[in-house]
Amino acid sequence: MSLPGKILYHAWHQPVGALQDIIAAGGPWEMRRTERGRQKMETAARDLPALSAVSGTPLELHLLTGRRFWYQTAFCLWSFARHAGRPLAPVIYDDGTLAEEFCVPLRRLFPAARFVTQTETVTRLNAFLPAAKFPVLHERWLNYPNIRKLTDPHVGASGWKLVIDSDLLFFRRPGFLLDWCAAPDRPLHAVDCKTSYGYSRALMNELAGTPVADLVNVGLTGLNSSELDWERLEHWCRALITRERSSYYLEQALVAMLVAGRACAVAPAADYVTHPLPPEADECRAAMHHYVAHSKRWYFQHNWRVALTR
Fold first, then answer.
1. What is the number of structural domains in the chain?
2. Nearest to 304 by CA among 67, 7, 45, 87
3. Pairing of strands 114-116, 91-94
4. What is the domain extent for residue 101?
5. What's the pTM value of the predicted model, to 2 decimals?
6. What is the rounded CA–CA span in Å between residue 119 and residue 125?
7. CATH classification of the domain holding 58
8. N or C end of the chain, less CB within 10 A?
9. For the chain, how far is it from start to end, CA to CA, in angstroms?
10. Rounded to whole angstroms, how far apart are CA atoms 74 and 82?
């Protein structure tokens, strides 16, 4: 960015963007209410009631979490298990901040959980994606945590995996996800509230070799580790960043390119809602909410309590 561009950004675009965020979050008073609700949710996560014993083969769900998100992970898995009526054996990847004090409540709720330390992940990353051959993926892993939702569960692994974000709540039986987990045969993804890839469609289509679909969201992502071509992903990352820029949505763009032109299991948007807003944000009629961006107001102020009482 040129010097005049930097001055314009800091003097105008950044303050205007911050003001727009405050307005979208409901203003200062609502923001304070949201933060108080977040604190209460974190406290409540330590005392979530034990789940009733159920039979069946435990389901594997894969999540990246740490100090900032462990309590959201707890509510996500707890609400999923409660409505699925199935035991869970979640695989939880440490983002580098998952101290033992945050593992304790997760382990209490899910004794079959497996915690993958960051040391274990780095060892696997170095073995299967050596930095000399995959420098861009290594750099992004270090400086862009979202890429770890793609690398950490899949590098050096095989088979289908359902990777989910922590900021999800479930209010009814997630039948679509349960059916996919029972017989995965195609990639799975959620539907976004708007297309957010951070890169031009022309460049993405060129690299993917086929048109990329709209509205791919990675809050729910089912991929087969065995099918991932890491050399191609390295090439895509380098090309996207070199020809355009780095982007917060890089991981979502990569997944959209991976599934381009393929038959996919697409989570029904009306039942697996990304960015819920009223009336759905108040009524919680869908099977699942994904609380991105400014929908976190309902997440923290109200809906984790709904998940407790449903």
1. 1
2. 45
3. parallel
4. 46-309
5. 0.90
6. 10
7. 3.90.550
8. N
9. 50
10. 12
